[in-house]
């Protein structure tokens, strides 16, 4: 059934120019926002808790704009199944890759902290072809083996290597002196069983941040860089890189985590519609976690 879905539905759509796919996105938006209302309550609740100073009208506008963008994100991600490197680079422009040049000369590997903001999937493809560092990303393998294979094949076209979470330590140890860039999604909701969490304020709420970005950087001496993604226009993104800490072993405990969390928060506040509000980001509450441990 899964191969049929891919070859009869997803693959043909992925071959369409995005200007045509956006017509599908427009239809999806109408169906999703006004008919099916996917996770409407969760989305609105997340927005209300994050921006209590805004009015109900403003909350609803952010939710509507997010739903519109989310449908664009879906068709753009489907397009990635057939997108070549040339198109990915045209659509996702790294405006300051030179900030990493000195790190590359030193064969200094990098932990790249990013959020689920704008189209991180398309950007990941472009980075694999536009940076001097060899690129990789930590990911959780999909439960569906067929789609997991297709996902890895798509990213592999741009020389982006996907590393299963279970192999993180081995991979980082092996690549630490070989000028690798390893992407870490730093805004996911952590497992309540995890003890190694860092609690801070994020979007007006007590939030558990997975400490892996800072911990692995310090353990293996990777520089830490934050990835800004700005939407230039529909289907086009600018990528900006900001060095947070070149020597993480010298950094104060928690400072790196606070910095990448604050940088993402500032960007979300500027254009909140481009963050993944449908994600159950705050399902882990501080009081519940403290009781469990």
Written account of the structure:
The protein has 293 residues and is of the alpha/beta class. The chain is 48% helix and 19% strand. Strands 1-9-8-2-5-3-4 form a seven-stranded mixed β-sheet, sandwiched between helices. It has a two-stranded antiparallel ribbon with strand order 6-7. The protein starts with a helix and ends with a helix.
Q: How do the helices and strands line up, and which of them pair or pack?
A:
Elements: H1 2-14, H2 18-36, H3 40-50, H4 56-79, H5 85-91, E1 92-94, H6 101-105, E2 110-114, H7 120-130, E3 134-139, H8 145-156, E4 161-164, H9 168-175, E5 180-185, E6 197-202, E7 205-210, H10 212-220, E8 223-233, E9 236-245, H11 255-270, H12 286-292
Parallel strand pairs: 1-9, 2-5, 2-8, 3-4, 3-5
Antiparallel strand pairs: 6-7, 8-9
Helix pairs in contact: 1-4, 2-4, 3-4, 5-7
Question: What's this model, at a glance?
Answer:
The chain is built from twelve helices and nine strands. The protein has 293 residues and is of the alpha/beta class.
